[in-house]
């Protein structure tokens, strides 16, 4: 019996798979298995012999059985491990060396601008690109006869014959988001509104679709001085220069009073643009104190609230900062251009991490 025991325990321990194990079970404990045959011999024994052989055989049978069960589950575990190893996927593998795609300069600049204004407490608001002419014009104090409507080269949508409501427009600026945000949230408010705008125009510095970011700050005690400080902080952070000189030039917009256009001191020496030095001035944005009629149109009481607004051309400041000479290239989808001017997709601009590493 000891021989049988050590023989089967060794065979079981060495079994390589479940079918080999099943063969061993039949060989030992099956109907004609070695141990079963021994059990049959019990009948021929004397009662005394049976008394010792019986329990010993039963114990042997139990031991072999347990060894078979234990080995079976060990083989099952090993098979599962093996399968898991085979199916293992290393999701931590580094990305390919050359990024497949890149962040478009417009997206990059929009994120830079957002990071700067977020730091000054502005949140981001959005509005529709297909706009009613009330939001795009009337509410901004640009009535039907106003020359600004013609100046803006507006795209109009088509109304069905017989429908004499005014057509919708592709918004010509982000200023209508001022009205929508004030209507939705009231004053006080501090927002920027980046987005696409449309005008029928096409040359080196104009494309029919381009981008603006609108700014709006309304409260009880906001003045032109706050506007100047905010814009100076913005320009310093955006162009990453400490010494910038801004020139506020009196101007006119229907939706602000007074209005100012802002120029930045720069030089074009050697064909490259340097911000903060030189004798040239470059216009970068329009701004002013929000006109009382605009506040009124948006449901805000102009005898209680006042504030400033501004509108910056995103494409324009992207060209300036990154030395991109032709606006049209932004929208040509030329892969060589995108690889050259694009940004790495994992570098998110922040004020502490750097805007444009
Ligand atoms: N909406 C103007 C444009 O597209 C830009 C602008 C000027 C926006 C003055 C403003 C502002 O908010 O105050 O030309």
Can you describe what's shown?
This protein has two domains: 2-86; 103-344, BirA Bifunctional Protein, domain 2 (2-Layer Sandwich). It is built from twelve helices and ten strands. It has helices spanning 2-14, 18-29, 34-41, 47-87, 105-119, 133-136, 147-151, 176-185, 224-239, 292-297, 314-322, 335-341, and strands at 123-124, 130-131, 169-170, 189-198, 209-219, 246-253, 256-267, 274-275, 280-290, 306-313. The strands form two sheets. Strands 1, 4, 5, 6, 7, 8, 9 and 10 form an eight-stranded mixed beta sheet that branches. It has a two-stranded antiparallel sheet with strand order 2-3. The radius of gyration is 40 Å and the shape is elongated. Bound molecules: 3,4-dihydroxyphenylalanine. 3,4-dihydroxyphenylalanine binds at residues 173, 175, 214, 253, 256, 286-288, 309-311.
State the secondary-structure class: alpha+beta
Major sheet details:
8 strands, mixed
Number of helices: 12
Bound molecules: 3,4-dihydroxyphenylalanine
User: Helices and strands, in N-to-C order?
Assistant: HHHHHEEHHEHEEHEEEEHEHH
**Coarse shape:** elongated
The name of the CATH topology of the largest domain is BirA Bifunctional Protein, domain 2
Described by its quaternary structure, the protein is single chain
Low-confidence region ranges: none
Instruction: Name the beta content range.
Output: 15-25%
Q: Which CATH C-level class of the largest domain is it?
A: Alpha Beta
The helix fraction, in percent, is: 40-55%
CATH architecture of the largest domain: 2-Layer Sandwich
DSSP strand count? 10
Distance between the termini: 80 Å
Question: How many structural domains in the coordinates?
Answer: 2
Q: Please, what is the CATH homologous superfamily of the largest domain?
A: Bira Bifunctional Protein, Domain 2
Summed over residues and divided by their number, the pLDDT gives a mean of 91
CA-atom Rg in angstroms:
40 Å
